[in-house]
Batch of 2 targets.
Target 1
Amino acid sequence: MAKSTDSATSSASPTPKRRLFSRKPKEGAAAKRPGRMKQFFDIFTMTRRHDPNMVWLMLLVFLAVVAVALVIGFIFNNWVTGLILGIPLGLLAALLIMSRRAERAAFAQIEGQPGAAGAALSSLRRGWIVQEQPVAVNARTQDVIFRAVGRPGVVLVSEGPTHRVRPLIDAERKKLNRILPNVTVHVLQSGRGEGQIELSKITRTMNKYKPVLTKVEVGAVDKRLSSMGTKLPIPKGIDPYKARPDRKAARGR
């Protein structure tokens, strides 16, 4: 009898396991949907908080697209088709407006914070190779320079006041001209001061530059710059080649 009960329990045990494995994908798929909707709602809320007129602009664009579609439908005596096509096109246009406004709101939140220029470069599309870490740093003032390589050449984006970051830019440009004498170097100063450009317009400005390099040359330029490395700033008055260890400190005295 013991054998029969054991066989009965063993035959019944695989059943709940199969049910568990079959339920997991459904629960996972259902859990992803609220996450996407919540992310969309968070973006909408954040953008509306920064730009209250966004909702009215989205509504105006939606109605304008639908109205144009209806007019075209009436011209061809088929307003129903115009309405069917106008509603999705109007929604698409409204979403494009929201995405533009959301990008501006995101840049406005990080503007003035350390590394904001690097965050702006991270939104570049394909064709650009962005150095994540700053290529030049002023340890005293915390001014930094970020670098991106693309078909227009090398672009340096500074972060700091214009009068204060100028020596750092000149030093980095001289180094690039020495390493890559035939490559164009562009300089953009992020900020809202005179001669500076806003974070939301940095990538747009870079994409307007005229291409002067091929894709193969962009990779070669990036490898050349990566092989040089980035040297950390050394405090003044210290010569690393003449520095000697303190023997008393090494002995514990």
Target 2
Amino acid sequence: MQQRKIGQTDITISAIIMGTWQAGKAMWTDIDDNETQRAMRAALDGGITTFDTAEVYGNGHSERIIAKALSNVRERVVLATKVFSNHLKYEQIIEACNRSLKNLNTDYIDLYQIHWPPGTFGHPVVPMEEIMRAMVDLKTQGKIRAIGVSNFNRAQMEEASLYGPIETLQPPYSLFWRGVEGEAAPYCRERNMTLLAYSPMAQGLLTGKFGPDHKFAKGDHRSANRLLQPEHFARVQTALQQLQPIADKYSATLGQLALAWIIAQPNACAIAGARDSAQATQNAAAGDIVLSEQDLAAMDRIGRTVTDHLDENPVQWQW
């Protein structure tokens, strides 16, 4: 498993990170808690040491499942969680962090992230100075080890950095969703920040398992993914056909190829969810794939046949 550092800290993380939105169950279907816990242990056995969650994933349920699965190996894992955009006032952040500490059954969080910028989803606009003051105080108290942001653009990161150290950005990023490459990724490189890419397999699209007639179960949020809409989906299918020979060259699945592409980008990690142990083990194996410059260039060209037709809306879903 390839390794990375969290920004300019001494915290080492795995290049493949296990994402646990699905562990919260809300907005997902057919999730079994026991299977999720087994998947987390399988991920760890496969070399994934880092687990990403958020207070909003099932109102803390995801965090509690992580605690059940990993509390007895706390010293071997790196835990990242997030505070949601409805809890960004000073006292709310402190309270949210304390809840997450309790849910995760730990006395420190390795990476605490602002999940969405203030004002998102109609939530109150809180001054960035107030938000960061709470985050820095938590770090000073030893409750968190590093501060990160998620879904922030360059201007928002610049403002946050005025009030404290930002070590990571967690954006939507995949071969089929590359808006972060415009201004945000260059800023992160300038500041030695680590990119934690969520949806690196485009919510499953890059695995090739969703054919033209695929129907999601009622309540599955992925049905609203913009890449699944008719104006984009045909181009997605063509691109997948072109990617398959490259995956075959590395004896990899399309999903593993997508993860390998992300971790080949500068100082980037891929956050990959898993419903079961088999998926977790398969994701972990992608951490050992090193793509050639020739294949990276070919994948870049193929990916752009999809992304060149997207607008600048950074939100993946039509909600």
